[in-house]
Amino acid sequence: MCTSILDDPAALAEVISDTNAASAPADPTLLSDIATANRILFREGVVDAFGHVSARHDKHPDRFLLARNMAPALVTDSDIVTFDFDGRAFDAQGRGVYLERFIHAEIYRARPDVMAVVHSHSAAVVPFGIVKNLPFRAVCHMGGFIGICAPIFEIRDVAGDETDLLIRNSMLGAALAKSLGDSNVVLMRGHGSTVIGNRLRQAVFRAVYTENNARLQAEGLRLGPITYLSEGEARTTARVIDMQVDRAWDLWKMQAEGKI
Ligand code: MN
Q1: How close are the terminal C-alpha atoms of the chain, in Å?
Q2: How far apart are CA 204 and CA 202, in angstroms?
Q3: What are 102's strand-pairing partners?
Q4: Measured distance CA(214)–CA(191) in Å, rounded
């Protein structure tokens, strides 16, 4: 009999039992910002029906906050679930959760400096994960945080060539976090990309400008050889542009709320 992975309701989400451990409630403003981040990322074309954004828990640094399994644009404060770094939920209450929560879990575990993570399949970035010998790198000051060569995670290196390419367990998440290293962006071959930030707004900003940089780099390559940002330019622009993150957030938030 011929079966499709899509026939299996557990294939793209799963229902898990909550742990019994106590968990202090997260700051309501943080929950609201995560819901806003989901809508911004949808409006900016980074996520569609898929992709997700998380933030480290403000009261439990060894936990993180991520929506239940659903389309990002529909996320509200009450859809956000608390997880530990083993992917266990505290308050899913029977609601389905994202299979790929291990992306977030293992990056938070590996990188204490990371406070927010965006995972997406944003379309312009994917080609740079599948073409050999063509580094994805900063072409414009707004993408300086990408640096001079974003790492590419090759799932075959750790799990063979018959996976569904999803980061569906701790082992795969840890391997992805290792590929990310101390970078801000990691491409995932044949899948998408993951972007980190030292705060939620920064991760959202970087996810938007990762997609933007990919479009610009591809356009540039069609015209001729590119003069890329140097390592020093990437570092300097990243530092300066980072001071403008709130300006973008304020605009995108207003748009996401339909106020402008
Ligand atoms: Mn994915």
Answers
A1: 53
A2: 5
A3: none
A4: 15
- For residue 127, the surrounding DSSP H or E stretch is helix 126-130
**Which residue segments constitute the domains of the chain, with CATH numbers given?**
13-252 (3.40.225.10)
Each as own residue / partner, the long-range contacts of residues 66-69 (CB below 8 Å, 24 or more positions apart, any chain) are 66/34, 66/97, 66/98, 66/101, 66/104, 67/34, 67/35, 67/38, 67/98, 68/92, 68/95, 68/96, 68/97, 68/98, 69/12, 69/13, 69/14, 69/95, 69/96, 69/97, 69/98, 69/99
pLDDT 10s digits, 27-65:
999 999 999 999 999 999 999 999 999 999 999 999 999
| Overall size of the chain counted in residues | 260
H, E, C per residue of 27-79: CHHHHHHHHHHHHHHHHCCCCCCCCEEEEECCCCCCEEEEEECCCHHHCCHHH
Q: What letter does residue 89 receive in the DSSP assignment?
A: B
Residue ranges for the chain with pLDDT beneath 50? 1-7, 9
Catalytic residue among 44, 100, 106, 211: 100
Catalytic annotation present for 44: no
* C-alpha 67 – ligand 1 centre gap (Å): 14
Distance CA 38, CA 57 (A): 17
CA 190 to centroid of ligand 1, rounded, Å: 10
